[in-house]
Amino acid sequence: MVGLFKPPEELSALVVMELLYYYALAHQDSFDVRWIKNGTVSDSLVAPLATRLEEEYDLKILGGCRVGKISLEKDATKLKATTIEYQQSDGTKKTISNVDGVIMALTCRGMQGVVGASPDLARLPVFSKAASLQGIDVISTRIWLDKVVPTRTPANVFSRFEELRGSGGTFFMLDQLQENNKDLWGGEEPQGSVVACDFYNAGALMSLPDEDIVKTLMEDLLPSAVPAFANAKVVDSWVGKYFGTVSWFSPGSYVKRPPPPRCWPGGLTKRQVCRRLGPNG
Predict the structure, then answer these.
(1) What is the pLDDT of residue 276?
(2) Is a pLDDT exceeding 60 seen at residue 281?
(3) In the chain, where do the E strands start and end?
(4) In the 3-class helix/strand/coil scheme, how is 152-197 assigned residue by residue?
(5) What global pTM score does this model have?
(6) CATH 2.40.128 fits 8-31+135-247, yes or no
(7) Cα-flanking dihedrals φ and ψ of residue 244, to 5°?
(8) On the chain, which terminus has fewer CB atoms closer than 10 Å, C or N?
(9) Cα(154)–Cα(148) distance, rounded to whole angstroms?
């Protein structure tokens, strides 16, 4: 439930075996959560990368924009993207013409939105198939407490609790994984532990009010895992709900996924790369 976000009977057996091999067998020495030491992925990794691309490579980043229609035209040999229509955060619609190429890094729901607004893409089986893939609902929460709660490990998994309503759950002690300083408390003086809790396959929890989700965590789930949570009070909390955002590797979904690149760097096929690298490459 936590590894692939769905009950095993709703998953592709091939992907389950792949996960067990890659994470549990091939990488036993690093099979755990690696949390960024300070700040967030956005401000510690993505923002510096974006700044460098803008300053050193004259790249213009349009943050907060939503892609709408992608138009294609056929040249002498192939179909080529020509224009992209997008909407800015204030609702203003813009168009980029003379496009050299498009890289679509989207969730299932994002793919559905772009392909649905782009008839040229919808006519191509590779995109219409990808747009038919389904995603998994996820809930992410963060809770700031008035006292430090010691736990045996900073990364933990909820299992077999009725309150999960069929979802899989995890909780991470951010005050143990990161420095418990003002950055973790939004500039304020630290008071206690900070807990990040995630729910996967969370469809049955999505309709609950945010306060009910926090209440379930603080009164049922967290104290059942670590009794000391019962003595802590919530200073602040945040809940994010994301509908259909995580890939669902359902049986038969492989043929709907976009194919991998036919050619690797240097004009080599994947088989040629593997042959050159050898079995341990």
Answers:
(1) 44
(2) no
(3) 66-74, 79-87, 93-96, 135-145, 155-158, 168-173, 194-200, 234-247
(4) CCCEEEECCCHHHCCCEEEEEEHHHHCCCCHHHHCCCCCCCCEEEE
(5) 0.80
(6) no
(7) 60, 35
(8) C
(9) 13
Residue 276, helix vs strand vs coil: helix
Residue 277's pLDDT is 44
Residues of the chain with CATH 3.90.660: 8-31+135-247
Could you read off the pLDDT of 242-264 as tens digits, one per residue?
999 888 999 989 889 888 766 54
Q: What SS3 class is residue 198?
A: strand
**Residues found in the chain:** 281
Query: Among residues 204, 198, 217, 218, which one has the least CA distance to residue 165?
Result: 204
What is the band of 117 on the pLDDT scale with cuts at 50, 70, 90?
A: very high
* CB-count burial class (<10 Å; 0-12, 13-18, 19+) for 280: exposed
Q: How far apart are CA 1 and CA 159, in angstroms?
A: 9
Is residue 164's pLDDT more than 50?
Answer: yes
Report whether pLDDT(38) > 60: yes
Name the token pair of 78.
Answer: 């192939």
Q: Name the percent of the chain lying above pLDDT 90.
A: 58
